[in-house]
Amino acid sequence: MLFHTTRLQDVRIIEIEPARDERGYFARTFCLREFASAGLETTYVQQNVSHTKSVGAIRGMHFQRPPHGEVKVVRCIAGAIHDVLIDLRRGSPTYMQWEAYQLTAGDGRRLYVPTGFAHGFQTLAPDTEVDYMMSEYYSPAAADGFRHDDPSFNIAWPLPVTDISERDRAWPDFRPET
Hints:
- There is one protein chain.
- This protein is mainly beta.
- It has a single domain (43-170), classed as Sandwich (Jelly Rolls), CATH 2.60.120.
- Helices cover 6% and strands 42% of the residues.
- The protein is built from 2 helices and 14 strands.
- The chain has helices at 32-37, 166-170, and strands at residues 2-5, 12-15, 19-21, 24-26, 46-52, 57-64, 72-78, 80-87, 98-104, 109-113, 117-123, 128-134, 143-145, 163-164.
- β1 (2-5) and β2 (12-15) form a beta hairpin.
- The protein is globular, with a radius of gyration of 16 Å.
């Protein structure tokens, strides 16, 4: 696996290194030793998948408050997404900054989302599926978020928003105390 740094501190793009032959390829998608050598979380207690039917739909911006903060490893397994991360860690050199990454099915890339980041995405293709490995169990009492159009961040989404849940539409403006 290849671990690439990004502009946001501690975020990584993880790329597979396929061994190819006439049948196709084989590649590792997780290796405890390689994740540990890269200084990344190695314990994942939950794996989730989302399916979104429409193009332009947004899921996010989500995070869990301490002590239930979670690392996510995100991979698009069908379709394509415009994935957005925002650093919410006070004291971080990239605090309150966001960056977007495109993930597509078959590109062999995953996004490592450290604890303390908000995460959301917009679908770029119909019937998009996203797979997540999570370092913490989902805790409804710790679940938090803010709107995709929060003026604190001015996120540039590539498409008009076609679908968003009532919950995601109702998040309040970002509050620095979160």
